[in-house]
Amino acid sequence: MSKEKVLLAYSGGLDTSCILKWLLEQDYDVICFMADVGQTEDFVAAREKALKIGASDVVVKDMKDFFVEKFVWPAVQMGLIYEDRYLLGTSLARPCISKGLMDVAAQRGCSYISHGATGKGNDQIRFELSCYALHPTIRVIAPWRMETFCQRFQGRSDLLEYAKRANIPVSATPKAPWSMDANIMHISYESGILEDPSVAAPEEIYQLTQSPTRAPDTPTVAEIVFKAGLPVRVTELVSGRTMEKPLDILAFLNKAGGEHGVGRIDIVENRYIGLKSRGVYETPGVTVLHCAHRDLEIYCLDREVLRVKKYLADRMADYVYNGYWYAPEAEYVRKCIIESQKHVSGKVVVEMFKGHVMVTSRESINSVYNQELASMEVHGNFSPYSSTGFIEINAVRLREHHRVFGTANMTKHFSRTESDMKLI
């Protein structure tokens, strides 16, 4: 009788290497899957390692273009940012990787998939919800949620001992006191010494960006062209160098932004599972794109459309963070937001300099900005006398509130007593 096939999302690291061996001990035929989404990885060495441990095959799929064009670019177009700070680099990669995982699972006739995500994190949810949405009958083996596995392996020391006994190659390089996840969009760091939010992340943690204090003394200036909310061309204005392919655009902005320390954040965020976690992120290129897109969007969109779109983008960011990229509500909201972007076309000039990105100019034939109407030099078609009535109408409710409740005393809400100060 043939063994049941398991497709393991494999990284080549300690956890998934030990999980590979453990699955083989459970008498599964294990195929390893690796998605290249732009992380720095020796895929040849990882493949050899998995085959040496006992995998029947290793599939490495180049998904960089697919990731940028189908996930990163739509996120820029939609203006997605979780809790006003996190640009969702890891969250966007998971449904991308899941698509590759499920395609290979179907091609190879795998009944199960397996992964090394922990029971406390977001990734277990993102992977599994994405996989179930794409292939409802797939079964999942999540060792870090299985009692037999968790009783045997409490943590890294137990895995190292197991690896030694099983002749699993382990890197001789000391493990950094934090965990890291990387792709072409960003690098995230968490766990280890970062679990104490009161301790600053060490400078040596950063790989995509250098400290703004060591950034060049001359800004990098680039012109970014958008069409229907999507970046289509970037030109470095000093050299005239132009990029049009999405992967090339992102690579250039990652390098330029990284040199100026753009895109670093250190935050405490709300995980979907109910915990708060501390994360450190580097997202230089998409930080620049997000800033430019937001500026052009405000320039082109009607005020009320912009506010509705912002509400929908907040909901969509939650869906992506929580693992619902392929859910029907996400598909619906995505279509609504994309509809708002049909007039968001034009060009934006940005300046990257010592940790900051600043928009210095913008142009669009679709802008609802009317220079003559907005000018303080001429009245144009605007009647300043009409403002009197506008103010009178808007003052009605304020006067009525005063009639019923009296004068608002806001100062008492902001004054601090000596006892208040003791709590700080």
Automatic annotation (TrEMBL):
GO CC, one annotated term: cytoplasm
Catalytically driven reaction(s): L-citrulline + L-aspartate + ATP = 2-(N(omega)-L-arginino)succinate + AMP + diphosphate + H(+)
CDD domains: ASS
Pfam families referenced in this protein's UniProt entry, alphabetically: Arginosuc_syn_C, Arginosuc_synth
Record key words, sorted: Amino-acid biosynthesis, Arginine biosynthesis, ATP-binding, Ligase, Nucleotide-binding, Urea cycle
All residue ranges annotated as the Arginosuccinate synthase C-terminal domain in the record: 178-399
The protein's name: Argininosuccinate synthase
